Amino acid sequence: MFEINPDLPRELMGLAWMIGRWEGNGHGQTPEEGEFEYGQTVEFTHNGGDFLYYLSQLYTVDADGTPVEPLMQETGYWRPQANGEVELVLANPSGWAEVWAGRIEGAKIELVTDAVMRTQTAAVEYTGGQRLYGNVEGDLLWTMDRATTGTQLQPWLWARLKRA
Predict the structure, then answer these.
(1) Deepest of 125, 140, 144, 163, by most Cβ within 10 A of its Cβ?
(2) Cα(136)–Cα(131) distance, rounded to whole angstroms?
(3) Between β-strands 20-30 and 52-61, what pairing exists: parallel, antiparallel or unpaired?
(4) Cα separation of 26 and 129, whole Å?
(5) Are 44 and 52 contacting, i.e. CB atoms less than 8 angstroms apart?
(6) Measured between alpha carbons, how far is 133 from 22 in angstroms, rounded to an integer?
(7) Which residues on adjacent β-strands are paired with residue 24?
(8) 32: Cβ–Cβ under 8 A, 6 or more apart, which residues?
């Protein structure tokens, strides 16, 4: 059973259900590679500040679901505001950093990119996206649509993760 820490800052209460470690399998698709499956772990942690620290790791899995090799990683900070808005600041070792903006509505969070910065050697010419996170039957469901210089906004990643 999940319990909310009573000392959690009020601004974080809308994200409290996310705190902890989540694991599961997801799906993705790209025009170049087609559809693929992946394993994922996500951690949302609170260190006493008015934000949540976030780490997401995607990896290939074998037939038994055991992680084989890393696919993608991102890390950053969820920064909720008192008015129900939320900002998300992320960095990815594939060569991009993102600023997201959105709203918390109960156990649903919708975000769109406010800014995407890429290095000259970024793995993908990523230009923008939208994300949706939700608590459905106690699971963390999330999706991400992505646009690149070569493709319009389209579904890219989606997963259903269980609390670990």
Answers:
(1) 140
(2) 16
(3) unpaired
(4) 18
(5) yes
(6) 13
(7) 40, 161
(8) none
pLDDT digits (tens, 9 = 90+) for 48-90: 999 999 999 999 999 888 889 999 999 999 999 999 999 999 9
Closest Cα partner for 153 from 135, 134, 131, 128? 128
Give the CA dihedral 19, 9, 110, 158, nearest 10 degrees. Answer: -10
Per-residue pLDDT, 6: 83
Note the pLDDT tens digit of each residue in 1-31.
678 888 899 899 999 999 999 999 999 998 8
- What would the mean pLDDT of 94-101 be, rounded to a whole number? 97
Quickly tell me which residue has 């087609």 as its tokens: 34
| Beta strand extents in the chain (DSSP E only) | 20-30, 34-45, 52-61, 67-80, 85-92, 96-105, 108-118, 126-136, 139-148, 151-163
Is the Cα dihedral 98, 99, 102, 104 positive or negative?
Answer: positive
Q: How far is CA 48 from CA 7, 43, 51, 83, 155, in A?
A: 9, 16, 8, 20, 35
